[in-house]
Every structure is written in C-alpha cells, then in structure tokens.
Amino acid sequence: MWRFPVKSMGGCQVDRVAVDARGVHADRLWAVRDVDKGVTASARRIPALLGCTARYLAEPDEQAGPGRVPAVAVTFPDGRELTSDDPGIHAALSELAGRRVRLTALPPVGDTSAHRMKMVDSLDNYRPEQVRKDFGLADGEPLPDTSVFPAKDIITLARYSTPPGTFVDLAPLHLMSTASLRNLTVGAEVLDVRRFRPNVLIDLAGKERSFPESDWVGGELSIGSARLKVTMPTIRCVVPTRPQPGIELDRTITRALAERTDRFLGVYIDVRTPGVLSVGDEVRVRAAEPPTAVQRATMSVTRSATRAGQWLLEQTVMRVR
C-alpha cells in the first residue's frame, strides 16, 4: 500500500492505513501549482515532478485533511531535502519544473480556488497536440474510450484541474493486482508497480493471461474493516512510461496498454464503509448484481451519447492539423 503526500511525486509505502470517503488518510494533501496558468500541475505536464519523493515530517493525526495539512519534506533528484515551511522550496521546485510553481496545501472543503480552471486552460486540454502528449499517442491513433466515465466526472474535469476538495485525478482510491502487472509485462522482468502509482496492490496468484480487477467494476471489495465500491477502470496517460528514481524511461508501455487493455489498467474505488487496511489482509470480492433491463438501457444510451460526443470532438476540435 502507498500514500502520496504530494500529488505527482513519489510516496511512501505503509503497512496499515485508514480509508474513508476521501481515500487513504492524508493522501495527496499537497500539490504543485503552476503559477502562471493558475492550475494544479501534474506529472503529465511536468514530468520532472516524478523525480521527487515526499514524506510527512510526522504521522498525520486524525484531523489531517483539507485546510488542516501537516508539513512534508520533499527530496529532490539531486538528494536535497526541503520542508514545506522552507521559503526556498518554491524556487527549488520552479527550477526543477522549468516554470514558476509553488507547493500548495489542500484548502478547506468548499474553497475551489486551487481547483478551478480558466476557460482558456480548459479548452487547451482539448488541443490535438496536447491530448496526444498526455496519452503518448502518435498522430492518427484513436483516443481511449471515455464512455466508461459518468457524465458528472467528465463535466467536473472540464471545469476543474482536480475534483474540488481533493488533489486526486478522479477517484479517492486506485487499486491494481499483481496479475495485471505480470500480464502487461513485455519480456522477463515484471513492470515496477511504482510506474502506475496505485494506493493498493492486491497479490493474485496464478498464471492466467488476464487483467482480473477489470471484471470487478460495479462490484464490492471487503478489505480489513473497509468496504469498497469498484466504480470504473483506470484510464492510462503517459505517466507510467516516464522515469522515476530507480525506474528508466519505457515508451513500450504505451503500446502494450493500447494493444492489451485499450489503455486501461487497474480500477478506481469509492469507499462505502470507512475502515483500516493492513498489508496481508484478505480481499473478498462481491460481484456486481446483473443490471435490470432499465439499467441496461440507460447505460447503453449514456455510453452511446458519450461515444458520439467523443467522435464529434475527434472530427472537429481533436482533429490533427
């Protein structure tokens, strides 16, 4: 299990952690803010952030969260360690990023100032060259199928750089299995799980060539004292290909994801019942109930509408020029 104190930086392995509606306790309570654009930065746009790792100076207490953020220490690629209360940390991060940035704490719930995007920046996210950079796509390659995402999530990400009240990309928790890592691997050496930045890695034995957690979407997991809802597969951008401390650049991952999983790997999770997860806990899977006829019809209409919207974007705004 992993907790990431700062968005887009390396985190810390944990043996035991509480989870609630916000995900892993004290996960991503800090982020790097692009000063000129006024948006929360990510490793998609500033890959140098992956060269840093972050840790809390002390174990966060139960009250840690939005508006009450404990201090962190950031280790830079050159070995320097600066704390969040060091006034020089912003200049050091700016030098690393090659642009003006600031280390920013998650504001109180209801304050969307750290999340809201300007219209020009929202539209910039749909520029053909930018989308292809974000996903590591060559000209002419099709975009990932976004019809798996609820419309409310698509609307949220069009307005905000991260969902208000959080610095996560989309969902509170991210989970993967060892089976998926094995089955995506090209060659003898299994891919390093740190490339994919999950909060939870489930150890699944067996040699079947499959990606089992994708079959759990809509179902529930019981781990430790927590109950978790599997909401959707995790779409993959270019970040897993990028170098991190001890991990080399590997562009073949993008091709493997496209060919084997349609660019999805792992699943996003909502926490239904808060609890405590510990390394070694048994994982119990409860499959999703078969949808009713009305639910099937609704899902079909929603996905068709989303696919139609994506096709329209690809033929207009997204068309390669």
Shape descriptor reads globular
Distance between the termini: 43 Å
- Beta fraction of the residues? 15-25%
Q: Provide the residue-averaged pLDDT.
A: 88
Find the count of extended strands (DSSP E, 2+ residues).
17
- Which parts are unreliable, with pLDDT below 50 for 5 consecutive residues or more? 310-321
SSE order, as H and E? EEEEEEEEEHEHHHEHEEEHEEEH
Helix content: 10-25%
Largest sheet: 6 strands, mixed
Brief summary of the model shown:
The chain has about 325 residues and is α+β, with helices and mostly antiparallel strands. It is about 20% helix and about 25% strand. The chain has seven helices and 17 strands.
Describe the structure.
GO terms for molecular function: catalytic activity; molybdenum ion binding; pyridoxal phosphate binding. Residues 121-286 form the MOSC domain. This is Sulfurase. 22% of the residues lie in helices and 23% in strands. It contains 7 helices and 17 strands. Strand 1 (2-3) and strand 2 (12-13) form a beta hairpin. The protein has a domain at 1-9 and 26-108. With 321 residues, it is of the alpha+beta class. Mean pLDDT is 88; it is low at 310-321. The strands form 5 sheets. It has a 6-stranded mixed β-sheet with strand order 12-11-15-14-13-17. The chain has a 3-stranded antiparallel β-sheet with strand order 4-3-16, with no helix packed on it. It has a 3-stranded antiparallel β-sheet with strand order 6-5-10, covered by helices on one side.
